[in-house]
Structure formats: structure tokens, C-alpha cells
Design goal:
399 residues, mainly alpha, 3 domains, two-stranded antiparallel ribbon, 14 helices, 8 strands, 10% strand, elongated, disordered C terminus, binds 2-acetamido-2-deoxy-beta-D-glucopyranose
Length: 399
């Protein structure tokens, strides 16, 4: 083997070893979720807000430069999709810290964010809220703050310190989003309520814009979902009411006639980290009665009430039959529907016939050889007749 070949082999081996640590988690990792105490409220709630602001910048203002040259394609943003295809590998440092536990993750993310140029505290919206400024009274101050906000935003876009470049930052933010979104799905209580409006997406001053209804900071986990996760059923940048999602709702494309409009992203159906990374989102749609939504098929599927609802029919007297959208309980053999009692009652006619039959034929004799021979004979006659009709040539010579 030549020297060059050895060098190549070693290089490949080194590559394999070095990517191992930052590869994807194969399956449910045992990431500790129990570090969720509220003693550290002071820094954690601020950290959540800072991190959420910075990730919203990515969600609404950054895009994957490997696939999109410009941000003007509205499908390029995170709000339209998690990066598709997913990242080839995690940002190793985010992975290392965030797979430990939520507090380590949060502390690390906040530390890095504090070195970036454009942060929550410099956002015009945030300053206005802190200072109780209104445009009528404080327009000059607002203008000054806003100029600075715009300058920092531009400078941050052009020179993404402390990252090695835009792609490194992109990877950092995506990896952080994967984890923060996943923690949101895990009921981490400090992500539950932000206690602050969370629809500031770093656009600096916003005149009279209605808040995004998805960023309702009074509903548990809404701000966290808005900041960290995609919205598969409403991939729009700003929406003030659910109706605005209807025309662009991709969850609706797959709907069958049994589906009504509203589809939702349900947290407790999206708790697996590998699926979070690979965009395998489960949504839940309102279906008409008797159907339930199945994300695998993207459609409303008939509920088999007979299999899923126990004791739906009376075990002794009824049989359950699953039908499209509903089920039926029908009376078993030997029972008949009583219109008076509205239940299946013993069918006296059948019972009487059975008794008569049983007394005339000793059941044991049915199994005697003569009766078996007789029945096989008659079956043979029937088969021969059918056969004869369909292929007469087979029997012509014999008959
Ligand atoms: C994860 O936890 C489960 C149950 O606690 C355990 O059986 C499994 O071996 C753990 N996996 C890893 C990779 O530690
Ligand atoms: C995307 O942009 C196109 C034109 O550039 C526009 O017609 C379309 O409505 C936009 N879609 C969304 C979801 O915003
Ligand atoms: C803003 O208003 C709130 C109550 O409306 C008050 O508690 C707070 O101190 C005010 N902040 C400033 C900077 O004036
Ligand atoms: C989160 O809470 C919801 C409702 O309280 C529950 O149904 C779900 O199982 C919880 N998920 C986890 C991962 O604990
Ligand atoms: C969605 O549901 C499927 C089937 O239950 C599951 O395999 C997948 O992990 C879920 N997705 C997420 C993001 O948890």
C-alpha cells in the first residue's frame, strides 16, 4: 500500500471519529429533565427571554444560506419550515451543553448571546415597554433608540460575532432551536409563561401592529412555541387571527371531507428529539365525529369504535360492527331486537326451533361415519355440477 493511501485512510478514520460526537442522537436520549427548579428565577426568566428573542431573530430573519441565496423567498425562513434538509451535524458546543440539561443549556446560550451585537435589550420595542414611552410623548427618544436598534441589527447581520461566520451562527441557532423546542415539548415549567409580550421579532420600531395571536404570553408554552418551534399549520410571518392561516395552511391540503378546518400543533405528540430534528411533526386536526386525525396519513381516519371503546355493545346479546364514521350493535344469533325494551332479547322462536332440533337429532349421531359420508357425497355432487357447467369437456367422456 502506498504512503498516500495510508494517509487517506487515516484521514477518513479521523473524520469518522471526529464527527461521532456531534452526530445526531439516534433515538430517545436520556437527557435529564429534572433540573427544573424555580429557585433561580432571577436569572432563568431573563435568560429565557434573551434566548427566545435571539432565536426568534433566526426564526423570522435568518435563513439557510446553503439552500437560499436571499431571504426574499418567503419559504426560506424558519417560520415556513425547520431547515429542510436538517442540519448535517449539530453545532457541537450547543449539543454538548444542551444535551446535559435545560439549565446548563440556558446558561450557555445566554452567555454566548451576551457577546452578540443585537440583543433583546437594544430592541426598540423592548426599550419602549421598559420606559413606558409612547410615540405621542416620546417620539424623539424613540427615534434615537430606533436608529441605534437598526444600526445594531445591520451590523449584527454583516458581522456575526462571536460566531465564525453566518453559517456557524445559523448552525448554532438551529441547534439551539432544536433543543429549546424539544424542551418546550417536555413541559419544562420555566418555559411555560414568559410574563412579557413575545412577538418582538427584532424589527426595531413597529407602528401599531396587532400582536401575533400565536404569541399569547398568557397561555402556557405559547411564547416558547412561537420562539423556538416551527408552526406546521400556519407558516406565516405575522398573523393576528387564526383565520389568516386558513388559506395557507398546509395541514389542510391533506384533508378529507371528514375534516373540519382547524389543525393544531399539539405539544405532547411531538416529544421525540430525533423527530423534532427530522421535521416529523404531528399535528392534530378537528375531524367530524367518528373520525380522528392521523399525522401519518395526513387525514381523518375512521375510529374503530368496536376496538377502541370497551363495552360499547352488550357482550352477551350483541355484536359490534364498525362502519364509516360510526358503529352498530346488532343482535347476536338467538337474540332479537325488542322495540319495547330497546335491547336485544332472547328470540323465543329460535330458541324453540333449537330445542326441537336438538331433541329430534341426537347431536352425537351427526358425527357418525354414515352422516359424514352422506355430507361429503352431497358436497361432491355440488362441486361436480359447478365444474361441469364451467368446463364440460372434463366430464364429457365419463358421463
Ligand atoms: C436511558 O434510560 C433507560 C431507563 O431509565 C435505560 O434503560 C437506558 O439504558 C438509558 N439509555 C442510555 C443511553 O443511557
Ligand atoms: C410568498 O411570496 C409570494 C410572492 O413573492 C406571495 O404571492 C405569497 O403569498 C407569499 N406566501 C406567503 C406564505 O407569505
Ligand atoms: C412604567 O409603568 C409601570 C406601571 O404602569 C410602572 O410600574 C413603571 O415603574 C413605569 N416605568 C418607568 C420607567 O417609568
Ligand atoms: C405535559 O403535560 C401534559 C398535560 O399536562 C401531559 O398530557 C403530557 O403527558 C406532559 N408531557 C410530558 C413529556 O411530561
Ligand atoms: C410523531 O408521531 C410519531 C408516531 O407516533 C412518532 O414516531 C414521532 O416521533 C412523533 N414526532 C415527534 C416530533 O415527536
Amino acid at each position: 500500500m502506498s504512503m498516500l493511501m495510508w494517509i487517506c485512510l487515516i484521514a477518513v478514520w479521523a473524520l469518522l471519529v471526529s464527527t461521532e460526537g456531534q452526530g445526531f442522537i439516534d433515538d430517545d436520549s436520556n437527557v435529564s429533565l429534572d433540573v427544573d427548579n424555580r429557585d433561580d428565577d432571577s436569572w432563568t426568566s431573563e435568560a429565557v427571554l434573551d434566548v427566545a428573542f435571539y432565536l426568534r431573530l433566526y426564526k423570522f430573519n435568518d435563513f439557510d444560506r446553503r439552500y437560499y441565496l436571499k431571504s426574499d423567498k418567503n419559504s426560506s425562513y424558519f417560520y415556513a419550515q425547520f431547515p429542510v434538509p436538517p442540519l448535517i451535524s449539530f453545532h457541537w458546543e450547543v449539543y454538548e451543553k444542551c444535551s446535559e440539561n435545560v439549565l446548563t443549556c440556558l446558561k450557555y446560550l445566554q452567555d454566548v448571546i451576551s457577546d452578540t451585537q443585537f440583543q433583546r435589550i437594544s430592541s426598540t420595542v423592548h426599550v419602549m415597554r421598559q420606559m413606558n414611552w409612547t410615540m405621542e410623548k416620546n417620539s424623539n427618544m424613540i427615534r434615537m433608540v430606533n436608529d441605534e436598534c437598526l444600526r445594531l441589527k445591520m451590523s449584527d447581520w454583516e458581522k456575526p460575532v462571536p460566531f465564525r461566520g453566518p453559517l456557524d451562527r445559523f448552525r448554532w441557532r438551529v441547534t439551539a432551536s432544536y433543543f429549546m423546542c424539544w424542551y418546550t415539548m417536555q413541559n419544562i415549567s420555566l418555559l411555560s409563561v414568559f410574563n412579557e409580550p413575545c412577538d418582538d421579532i427584532g424589527e426595531c420600531y413597529r407602528a401599531e401592529e396587532l400582536p401575533d395571536f400565536r404569541a399569547d404570553n398568557k397561555l402556557p408554552y405559547q411564547c416558547a412555541l412561537y420562539s423556538f418551534c416551527p408552526d406546521p399549520c400556519c407558516p406565516l410571518r405575522r398573523v393576528t387571527a387564526p383565520e389568516e392561516c386558513h388559506d395557507v395552511n398546509p395541514c389542510r391540503h391533506t384533508m378529507t371531507e371528514a375534516t373540519e378546518k382547524s389543525c393544531k400543533f399539539v405539544r405532547n405528540q411531538n416529544t421525540r428529539l430525533p423527530s423534532v430534528i427530522y421535521n416529523e411533526w404531528n399535528v392534530s386536526c378537528a375531524c367530524t365525529a367518528g373520525y380522528e386525525y392521523d399525522s401519518r396519513y395526513g387525514a381523518c381516519i375512521d375510529i374503530n369504535e368496536c376496538a377502541t371503546v370497551s363495552d360499547i355493545c352488550d357482550k352477551n346479546s350483541e355484536i359490534c360492527i364498525n362502519l364509516r364514521g360510526h358503529h352498530k350493535c346488532i343482535c347476536r344469533w338467538g337474540f332479537t331486537w325488542s322495540t319495547d325494551q330497546r335491547i336485544c332479547v332472547t328470540d323465543t322462536a329460535v330458541k324453540r326451533a333449537e330445542i326441537r332440533f336438538a331433541s329430534r337429532n341426537d347431536f352425537n349421531s351427526v358425527k357418525t361415519s354414515t352422516s359424514i359420508a352422506a355430507s361429503t357425497n352431497s358436497i361432491w355432487t355440488i362441486v361436480k355440477n359447478i365444474w361441469h357447467r364451467h368446463s364440460p369437456s372434463l366430464f364429457r367422456s365419463g358421463s
